[in-house]
Amino acid sequence: MSGIPIDETGRFAGYASVFSRVDEGGDIVMPEAFARSLKRRGTERIRLLFQHDPKEPVGTWERIVEDGFGLWVEGRLVPGVPRADALRKLIERGAIDGLSIGFRTVRATREAATGYRKLWQIDLWEISIVTFPMMEGARIAAASPDAHLQRALQATVSLLKKP
Questions:
Q1: HEC profile for the chain?
Q2: Is the N end or the C end of the chain the one with fewer CB atoms within 10 Å?
Q3: Which residues, in sequence order, are bridge partners of residue 61?
Q4: CB of 130 closer than 8 Å to CB of 117
Q5: Model confidence, pTM
Q6: Hey, how many other C-beta atoms are within 10 angstroms of the C-beta on 19?
Q7: How many CA atoms does the CB half-sphere of 102 hold within 13 Å?
Q8: What is the pLDDT of residues 54-102, one digit of tens each?
Q9: What number of other Cβ atoms are within 10 A of residue 29's Cβ?
Q10: φ and ψ at 93, to 5 degrees?
Q11: Please, which residues have CB within 8 angstroms of residue 9's CB and are 6 or more apart in sequence?
Q12: How far apart are CA 31 and CA 14, in angstroms?
């Protein structure tokens, strides 16, 4: 991919979820929360939607993996689909860059002190391009060939710094 968030073929990448951080809804996705779902569904059975609307499929996911930072995704918008064509232009111009997961909770616990919900196992159904993501770090990112590796290294370093 190029230095802009999307290439001429509609291919883009970013983090759909970030581990161990509180989102706007008070959820904390834990590392490996997606593992069983990804194994069972595979990339081809997880939909790429716009704003979580099942009537708005806009592309396909080519790669979905958990790393030390979160859920890394690589997708491609389908050319000729009006919403996908518009999204490509909006992403290219930086007007929209949010990503958000659509899921069913399989296993979670609630922190008594904070009320936050820790998501230990998630059944992932879809990942959407959104205007306002619940998780601030869930964003489409400009990618260089080593951007994914750099993000994983940053995650490792931050984990090592924790007491």
A1: CCCCCECCCCEEEEEEEECCCECCCCEEECCCCCHHHHHHHCHHHCEEEECCEEEEEEEEEEEEEECCCEEEEEEEECCCCHHHHHHHHHHHCCCCCEEEEEEEEEEEEECCCCCCEEEEEEEEEEEEEECCCCCCCCEECCCCCCHHHHHHHHHHHHHHHCC
A2: C
A3: 75
A4: no
A5: 0.86
A6: 23
A7: 16
A8: 999 999 999 999 999 999 999 999 999 999 999 999 999 999 999 999 9
A9: 28
A10: -90, 0
A11: 76, 79
A12: 17
- 16 φψ region: left (φ > 0), alpha (ψ -120 to 50), beta (else): alpha
Q: Which two tokens stand for residue 158?
A: 């931050």
How many CA atoms are closer than 13 Å to the CA of 58, on its beta-carbon side?
A: 24
- The token pair that represents 118 in the structure block: 């820790």
8 Å CB contact between 133 and 14: no
N-terminal to C-terminal alpha carbon distance within the chain: 37
